[in-house]
Structures are given as C-alpha cells and as structure tokens.
Amino acid sequence: MAKTADSLRIKIEKREPMGKSGLKNLRKEGYLPASMSSRGEESLSFSIKQDELNRSLSKNGRMAVFKLALGRKIHTAMLREVQYAPVTRECLHVTFQRIHLDEVTRADVAIRPLGREDITRRQLEFLQHLDTLPVSGLPGDIPNHIELDVSNMEAGDSLTVGNAVLPKGITTDLEPDRVIFTVSYPRTQEEPAEAAEEVPEAAAAEEPEAAE
Length: 212
Known about the structure:
39% strand, elongated
C-alpha cells in the first residue's frame, strides 16, 4: 500500500480536559478525542477530525507515519490504540505515539497467509495460531501486514516464527519455535458401526423374555 504525503498530514487542535458531555459533543461535531505520548514527556491531549483520520488510514494503513500539525509544529507519530464502545462500536478515543524516523520502534503487525485457497482446494485443514507478530524496525519500514506463503504446505507441515521470511529491516523477538500456521488432514466422523451392530444383539436378548 503506497503512502501519500498529503493524506499523512492531519491538522490537530489542542484539547483541554473534558467531561463526558463535552466529549460527546466533540464527537457529534465530527472530532475524536486523542492523545499522544512520548518517552520522557507529558502526554498531549488534542482533537482530530474523524473523517480525515479515516481517509488517511484507508489510503496508508494502520502502520502509517502521520504528520500531526499543531499550529506550526509538526509531530511525527504512529497510531497505537483505538478505543471503541463495546455495543455500538463507536470510536471513542485514539492514542498516538510520537516517534523519530531514525529510531527503532515496535509494533504488532497483522499476519496474512498467501495461498490458503490452495490448501483448502486439496481438502486439507488449515489453522492459523498467531494473528499478529510483534516486530521491531524503523518506522518507515514497518509494514501494515506481513504476508507469508503457505501454498506449498502439506498435511503435517507447520510454519514457525523461525522459518518465516520477514520484510527487509524487520525483526521479531518472539521465540523461533512459536507456530504460526499448521496444516493437517481434515477430521472425519467415524460411522457408528459398533452401535449399529449392537442393536440386533440387544433385540435377540429380549426375544426369550418375550417368548416366556
């Protein structure tokens, strides 16, 4: 996914502490309450236009490096957390982390299997054990997702962290033997042959009583 500089720059406005009613009115006006943290500095509270953030995420992905413009000052940051209401799934708050482009940062990146349909076409069972992978790298190198080819996997095969091919400049400290994908033969239900065989025997056992 190509990142576009125009959509990465979003204007933000400093926000004072608000109560529930103030936050509700803020969202009604099309803004989201947000905060930005940085090592050794106080967290900055601000508001950001929800439609601009959504458009930028749609174009650039969740791991984009944003340029948040507060007046004349530009804050380079990455999105770290989005909080949703449990029932309505309304976006309640977003959290950014201020980063430096020349410093290694960490992120949890989604894992996508490539060629899964080739496995299911052979009527094999495919199981994904890890949905995300914790990685480290320069902010500009961290991908929105990691694609791993599974098309040649056969029944009994497993793909672990140690034999996964990661993008250039990206590393993970997860244990190499952690399993990401496995392939197996499908589980088949055994026919109740034994139960079927027991029926005549049970019927035969009742016959003498009926004769008596």
